[in-house]
Amino acid sequence: MARLLAVDPQCPAPAVLAEALAVLRCGGVVAYPTDTVYGLAVDAMRPDAIARLYTVKGRPESKALPVIIGALPQLAAVVATVPAMAERLMAAFWPGPLTLLLPPHPRVPAALLGDSDRIGVRWPASTISQQLAVGLGGAITASSANRSGAPAALTAADVLAQLAPAVDLVLDAGAVTSPVVSTILDVTVEPPCVYRPGKIAQHALEAVLGYHVAQKKVDTSS
């Protein structure tokens, strides 16, 4: 059965953070609040934990899993290169609800990428998200805490209704303040391409870059 722990997402108690990190280090699955909807965290460098996450969500293994970093220096461990336009977007919107598709670092497990040749990376504004990644010493997954194709979880109760007892630990921070997901932008192409509309509007991206951003219709179910 999934354990449930209350957490202040901006000032998590050390004991709660330690318990969540212990679960992640053992290859477990933690549901946690991000700065958008609830997400599912596993150690993004453990193929066994990644495989378990696909099973928990019922997600096709062909679909890549996005990751969260806790601090900008962690980016170098998961991506191979950072285009200049990506640096401008990071300066404007990170930490925040913008996921960038970037070339993956060779050490990233293939299981994380599915059929893709890119990795989705975000540095969120949520303190608990940041501290989980920093405490683990590397990226965590950021897939939404729901069965694949089902509505995103906006509360811990939503997580339990969809995923209990498959997850090991649920960090309950109450209802999310906004149900809008992060914007996903592919910066491996020119012009960059919006793969999923979200909190960061297209016109805001274009204002930073100074040129048009394309849109691509893809399956964005999480």
Any overview of this molecule?
α1 (about 15-25) packs across α5. It is built from seven helices and twelve strands. The model has no long low-confidence stretch (mean pLDDT about 95). The chain has about 220 residues and is α/β, with parallel strands linked by helices. It has one domain (about 5-215): DHBP synthase (Alpha-Beta Complex). About 30% of the residues lie in helices and about 20% in strands. β11 (about 195), α7 (about 200-210) and β12 (about 215) form a beta-alpha-beta unit. Strands 7-4-6-5-10-11-12 form a seven-stranded mixed β-sheet. A five-stranded mixed β-sheet has the order 1-9-2-3-8, with helices on both faces. It has helices at about 15-25, 45-55, 85-95, 110-115, 125-135, 155-165, 200-210; strands at about 5, 30-35, 40, 65-70, 100, 120, 140, 145, 170, 185, 195, 215.
Write the layout of secondary structure elements.
Layout: E1 3-6, H1 14-25, E2 30-33, E3 38-41, H2 47-57, E4 67-68, H3 84-93, E5 98-102, H4 110-113, E6 119-122, H5 127-136, E7 140-141, E8 143-144, H6 156-163, E9 169-172, E10 183-186, E11 193-196, H7 202-209, E12 214-215
Parallel strand pairs: 1-9, 2-9, 4-6, 5-10, 11-12
Antiparallel strand pairs: 2-3, 3-8, 4-7, 5-6, 10-11
Helix pairs in contact: 1-5
